[in-house]
Amino acid sequence: MSPDSKPRGAARISADWAAVLVAAVLVALAAFGVLPTIPFLVK
């Protein structure tokens, strides 16, 4: 087992978790009506 395969600790988050956090923030902002609407998509 190489030294590079060890986990880097709890302080660093993976790209997967970073994407989940970004998506959660966007969903929360959309739910509270903070994000602007796109007029041609709203019917």
Please describe the structure with a list of short key phrases separated by commas or semicolons.
43 residues, mainly alpha, 1 helix
Layout of strands and helices, then pairs:
Layout: H1 15-31
Keywords: Membrane, Transmembrane, Transmembrane helix
Organism: Amycolatopsis albidoflavus
Protein name: ABC transporter permease
Describe the structure in your own words:
The chain crosses the membrane at residues 20-42. With 43 residues, the chain is mainly alpha-helical. It is built from one helix and no strands. The chain has one helix at residues 15-31. The longest helix has 17 residues, at 15-31. The chain is elongated. The mean pLDDT is 80.
**How would you sum up the major sheet?**
none
* Mean pLDDT reading: 80
Specify the helix fraction band. 25-40%
Q: What is the C-alpha radius of gyration, as a whole number of Å?
A: 18 Å
Structural class: mainly alpha
User: What fraction of residues sit in β-strands?
Assistant: under 5%
What string, H for helix and E for strand, traces the elements in order? H
Low-confidence spans: none
Distance between the termini: 57 Å
In total, the number of strands is 0
What sort of overall outline do the alpha carbons produce when their principal axes are compared?
A: elongated
Count of helices?
A: 1
